[in-house]
Design a protein that fits this description.
single chain; Zincin-like; four-stranded mixed sheet; 57% helix
């Protein structure tokens, strides 16, 4: 009887170990260098507002720059757990990158729809307009996120 219990206990330990190895220890998403600043800014604002869900954020596998159809500035793929920003967006400038990263994270993290605020518009505004209205765009976005989070 003791041998059977010992074998069952050993089997349970092996099974638990195999489970944790298959699930793995989830690390933070992989970022493209060009996006680190925008992602960091977005995270800080979410944390300061008390709406940041680290577990959900860490489900994202990659936030990278990569090819997309010509009409797309960025794309959130919840099934693949990726966010892709187009190289054309990078070329437009830092405010376009910031707006696109915030926009795609808004889709992924909060399920925000197009048109729910300026940041969630169907397409990017010109770089100069985004730079001029960046403070307003962030405030409006954070107000929406905070309201929807409650």
């Amino acid at each position: 009887m003791k041998k059977i219990l010992l074998i069952l206990a050993l089997f349970s330990v092996v099974l638990a170990g195999a489970y944790f190895l298959s699930v793995g220890v989830k690390e933070k998403p992989v970022y493209s260098v060009e996006l680190e600043s925008a992602i960091g800014e977005w995270k800080r604002y979410q944390q300061e507002a008390g709406v940041f869900d680290e577990a959900k954020f860490n489900e994202i596998r990659k936030i990278t720059v990569g090819p997309l159809p010509r009409s797309k500035a960025g794309l959130s793929d919840i099934n693949a757990k990726t966010i892709t920003i187009s190289p054309a967006t990078i070329e437009k400038g830092k405010y376009s990158v910031r707006a696109c990263v915030w926009h795609e994270l808004g889709h992924y993290m909060y399920g925000l729809d197009h048109g729910s605020c300026l940041m969630m518009a169907d397409s990017l505004f010109p770089e100069e307009i985004t730079a001029e209205y960046w403070g307003h765009m962030k405030s409006e976005y954070m107000e929406l996120v905070t309201r929807s989070y409650e």
